[in-house]
Amino acid sequence: MADDELGALLTLARTAQDRATPVNPGLVRRSGAQRRHRRTAAIGGLAAAVLIGGAGATAWLASPDDHGGDKDQVVAAEADVLGPDGYGDLKLGMGLDEAEATGVVDIGGGGPGQTCRTMSLTAHPPARNTTSGYYSEKYGVAAVFAADDMETPEGIGLGSTLDQVRAAYPGLESGVNGYSIAVDGQPGVSYYFGVAEDSRVESLAVELDSQDCFG
User: Do 105 and 51 fall within a single domain?
Assistant: First the structure.
């Protein structure tokens, strides 16, 4: 095998391993099999097949005639789960100290007469003048908003279509500012979906029904 072909193959192997390594293994992973993509490349008579995303997703590096023997298996990263009761170790209703002790979130400072504080997810810092959710002085962690790579356990995330949301949540209710549904098995908790003009989800939150931070 020529040196340039060998170098290309090693580069492909490193790329597949990099893509398959979870960015933050401490966070909860999605259980559904979503966003599956297969990519195949052939270099100098050798092939690399990569499967990215989905529960138990793997990346294989093998030659085409390797039908037996050992292969190096790498577990691929999966989308983060939002819900059904918070995000990772951060749970709705947690008090200030308990929430910050998870390391998942930073909560902004409060002030006299202030009802709620903004939150920033440490793994997904929000853009300027936006927030990752709200902490209520009365109810604790009141709402957590989805980042781009988060999905509900049913596979709904930013960019999902309204038809997909309705299929995942048959009891979806329409409101003034979007759509919502009670989270199954979590009394007092709902998902909120803001939908753009193109009928795709542009905002998503899991929140306490009693939250007093936004309308």
Answer: no
Does residue 20 sit within a domain? yes
Distances (CA, A) of 35 to 32, 53, 90: 10, 6, 25
pLDDT tens profile 36-92:
333 223 323 333 333 323 333 333 333 444 444 444 444 444 569 999 999 999 999
Residues 92 and 174 in one domain: yes
Query: Residue 179: enclosing H or E segment and its boundaries?
Result: strand 179-182
CATH number of the domain residue 136 falls in: 2.60.460
Please, are residues 160 and 200 in contact by the beta-carbon 8 Å criterion?
A: yes
Domain of 190? 82-208
In this prediction the pTM is 0.65
